[in-house]
Amino acid sequence: MVTNHSPRPGHPPGLTVLFLTEMWERFGFYTVGALIALYLKDKEQGFGWATEDATRLYANYAMFVYASPLLGGWLADRKLGQRNSVLIGGVIFMVGYFLFWFHSLPMVYAALACIVIGNGFFKPNVSAMVGSLYPEGSPLKERAFTIFYMGINVGALLAPLVSELMVRKTGFRPAFVLAGFGMIISVNTLWWFRHLVVDRRHETSPPLADVDTAAVTEDVPPPAVRPIDAVPDRLRIRALVVIYLVVIVFWMVFHQNHTTILYWANDNTDWASWGLELTGIISAAINPFFVVTLSIPMVWFWQRLSASGLEPATPTKMVFGMIVTGLAYLILFAAARRAEATVSPESPYDYKVSPAWLLGMYATLTVAELMLSPMGLSLVAQVAPQRWRGLMMGGWFLATAIGNKLTQIGELWNKWPHSDFWLLLSGLALIMAVVLFLLLRPLKKAMPGV
Q1: Is 231 left (phi over 0), alpha (psi -120 to 50) or beta?
Q2: Do 26 and 151 share a domain, yes or no?
Q3: pTM score of the predicted model
């Protein structure tokens, strides 16, 4: 139940509303991410698809999911408003999850289409509403988004844990439907406490007129001239294009977590060696678990470096992030190469390895994610010229969508030795790290102070 107590001192109660709204929406979204590929491949409950077919469908679905906020954000700004768009998106999400109850491929396609459309309405606007709770320049805004980001990962953590239990007890389709009930909680939370959040499009008074203004109003200094303001627009745009290329490769590699890493966790990870009766579904909980547990130590680490004047610029952090991404997949390469040496060439995929390899990879990959993902949109917002900011924000979403489409590289999973596949992903990340390193000097000139 939402009360007038804010999640942290100084924040308005509307942040609690949006935290819970997003948490339950992400619970449903990540339930589908954890289940869809294995469901399509399952011969009894699903449709017995080949691995490459399931991988291809997921890649196309993910591409449209990450591109849909472009249209949803535009409709909210021009026609519907943020709050109405979130509510509409939530209802469409619900329809999609409940369609999974029917064992029919056309219904699967319809369900995924609803999730794509629902995400377009929901995702960009619920984030924008968080920003609308605070006046421009408020130092509380950055902290609010950190709290909000934790809500995303709590939902992402709960989804595979519940899904693992549901699939084992009742099967895939009831697990999908449970995501719909999570979405009911999300929509009702926003509806019943809608007076605590702001819809900027329909405002006729200052942003905080009806939401605990005193709690967040602080003395905000007048905007200062930033070093980056002296950089020509063309140089700033070129720098962002380089960042987009990094983002494309990162998401192509990272989002193997819903296809090839999921297959590895399901078919090649020996959970029984740890006395556990689990499937690969549980692996989708590992990354959000590490995000929740490592986020605060990472923030503390950067703050310590900043206090000592040693904190690297954002592009340098991204170089380190791509290096660490490559190292994460080298862990899986080592595990697969070692295991492949023990099986016959006729059965190259018939082996199992300790879950420790998977946990070590995800811990490493999450460190890389925290160096790359959270600051992405912030970087675009700071670097993009004011008159091109909307277009450059759209470029970020487009790059993310392209990266997700390229997860289709997972079609090689049962065509190559697994060790070679993991080495390919590692190599792509490390090559991009080298390219970014070589471009650091011009990037820093185009992004002074970022």
Answers
A1: beta
A2: yes
A3: 0.88
